Amino acid sequence: MSNVDDDEDDYMSDAFLKQCSDTRPGLLPERVAKRFEKDKKKKELNSMHRQMYKPRATLEKEKREEGLKVNIGSDNKGFAMLQKMGYKPGMAIGKAGSGRKEPVPIQLKLGRGGLGQEAHQKRKQEEQRLMRASMIAKRQKRDSRQRTEFVQRMGGRFAEKRADGDLRKSQKVCEQLDAEAGLTKPSEYFFWPVEFHPKNKKLKAKNDRLNQGLSDMTGGYDSVLDDDEDDKDEEEEDDEEEMELFTAAEMLEILTLYLRKTYKYCVWCGTRYDDAADLASNCPGATAEAHDD
């Protein structure tokens, strides 16, 4: 039984399929089959022509490369003239022998532009490339400058806001320490908050008394308020002119030195030290930045 199986052909093998003839396009109409055969013959003919006949550009390139590989022979008139003047193959031309050893290479011109057009186009392309590179460099420099200015501007705003907050805190501390020391008015106008100044306190108390006891005397009340407001306006104008001489950072620096020197107090540490030596050894410094670390 096994011998019979070995002798039979395997209908699924490639060897059996190669023995069969190609019947494509198969069960198609005769018109379609003829067109298929015609296209097949045309493709075979084109393939044969491509192998036998090369394009003109390919033939020219092959001929050119073949000619460049061959050295100039004595049958060339120019080479014969050089030999008569003592030239030998491999020598450099020129009186001192420092000229060219090989002929000028061929530069094939494929386009239809005039002479010098390619060099002109290359020069224009190089100019455009340099111009674009310059514009990109300028744009990058401008963007970098704008980013730096923005960071500095935002940093300045943050510093101003921080200085205002620290100044307000220092003013409150200074008023408390001065009050404990028995002082009734600050050494400088900006050492205390505005609402803690004695003149403002007196004016507020006076207004409260007038509101309580003289509510029925409208005319007199208004005249007293007008006189007090005039005095207040004159004093506030003088104080505002004094404060306009300094920025918030400058007022904070002056007030900080006053607190450290007079009361040995650091507003950022929130501590009143025993003496100057204790302040110098335990406090990082007299600025907010020194306490950031």
Structure report:
The protein is mainly alpha-helical. It has helices spanning 2-7, 14-19, 30-52, 56-69, 77-84, 117-180, 198-213, 218-243, 248-262, 276-282, 288-292, and strands at 265-266, 271-272. It has a two-stranded antiparallel sheet with strand order 1-2. β1 (265-266) and β2 form a beta hairpin. α6 (117-180) crosses α9 (248-262). It is elongated, with a radius of gyration of 52 Å. It starts with a helix and ends with a helix. Residues 1-6 and 217-226 have low confidence and may be disordered.
Give the helix/strand layout.
Layout lengths: L1 H6 L6 H6 L10 H23 L3 H14 L7 H8 L32 H64 L17 H16 L4 H26 L4 H15 L2 E2 L4 E2 L3 H7 L5 H5 L1
Antiparallel strand pairs: 1-2
Give a short synopsis of this structure:
This protein has helices spanning 2-7, 14-19, 30-52, 56-69, 77-84, 117-180, 198-213, 218-243, 248-262, 276-282, 288-292, and strands at 265-266, 271-272. By secondary structure, it is mainly α.
